[in-house]
Every structure is written in C-alpha cells, then in structure tokens.
Design goal:
The structure is a single chain. The chain is α/β, with parallel strands linked by helices and 168 residues long. It has a single domain, classed as Rossmann fold. It has 5 helices and 8 strands; from the N terminus they run βαββαβαβαβββα. The protein has a 6-stranded mixed β-sheet with strand order 2-1-3-4-8-7, sandwiched between helices. Helix 1 packs parallel to helix 5. The longest helix is centred in the middle third of the chain and has 13 residues. The radius of gyration is 15 Å and the shape is globular.
C-alpha cells in the first residue's frame, strides 16, 4: 500500500476527515502536525542520494499533502527548509499536493512557476499565486503533472485526485 504524509497546521483542519475517509483502504496516510515538522530555523532532512526520494532514515513515502492553513499568520513556517525539501521532491517527480492557502507554499518554492494551479478564492491568495509565477485556474482541483492543488471547496475530489495520481 502506498503511503503519503499529510502535513497539518497547529489548528483545526477542515477537510482532513473527508480526505482520510476517501483514502481508507487505498492509501496509508501518516498525519504530521506542525510540532513534528522542523520549523523556526531548523533544517528539514532532504533525502540522501543513496535513498529513494521521499525516504527519511527509516520511513518511505510516495507523496506529501499540505492541508489548508499552512500559509498565513500564526504558522511558524521556515520557507527555506520547506523550499529545499519540496524542490527535492519535485526534482524526483514525487506527488506533491496542497489545498487552500497552502498552495502558496508550493508557489513560494517555485514549483508552480508557469503551471496552472488553484488556491483559495480569496483575492489576495490568487494575486500571491500569480506573483509567484503560477497560472490561476478557477477550479476546485487542478492537476499539473505530479503537482495537485485544490481551492478547498471539494476535498473529496482533492483526495480522489491524489489517490488516482498514485494509481490506487
């Protein structure tokens, strides 16, 4: 069974239960809270050359999902560490998905440059996506190769797009 890491912010996450239910029996989802993810100057571990992409010392995974709420006030996200990590996954064409304002984490990392993507329908989020080089598409879910973005309005469609991308 394929495994994904689901990163959630330190506050309640809308849509998480919908996603977990859609993946049940199809994917193993390991949920990591912000307390488990290095931040505030700590470096995230980038996969070593002799390991598969997405492998840490003893944990292998097939994709990473950033739930809504990782971008914005109150979240102590270290963009340099995240940028390195996400760019390593992107280089190896690993599934990377983000919902709502968390799509902007991908945009800041340069992953959405010149690619169609969506984000929450808040005008400031749309403008930020465009400012980082993304091509905004008003759609609940947008797939661009191994990258999936969602506006947060249809989390079941988001979860199914992730499962379909992993062929499960």
């Amino acid at each position: 069974m394929k495994t994904i890491i689901v990163v959630i912010p330190p506050k309640p996450v809308s849509g998480l239960s919908v996603c977990l239910a859609a993946w049940e029996g199809r994917l193993k989802a390991s949920v990591a809270t912000s307390e488990a993810i290095p931040h505030r100057g700590e470096a995230m571990q980038v996969p070593a050359r002799n390991r598969k992409p997405g492998s840490f010392a003893t944990f292998r995974f097939d994709g990473i999902v950033l739930m809504d709420g990782l971008e914005g006030q109150g979240y102590p996200l270290n963009y340099h560490a995240w940028t390195d990590q996400l760019q390593a996954y992107d280089k190896h064409r690993m599934l990377i998905a983000a919902a709502g304002n968390s799509c902007l984490v991908l945009a800041r990392a340069g992953l959405l440059l010149g690619k169609q993507a969506t984000t929450s329908s808040v005008p400031a989020a749309i403008e930020a996506l465009r400012r980082y080089g993304g091509i905004y598409k008003a759609s609940p879910v947008v797939r661009s190769g191994w990258l999936i973005t969602a506006d947060g309005t249809n989390m079941k469609a988001f979860a199914n797009a992730i499962a379909e991308s992993l062929h499960v």
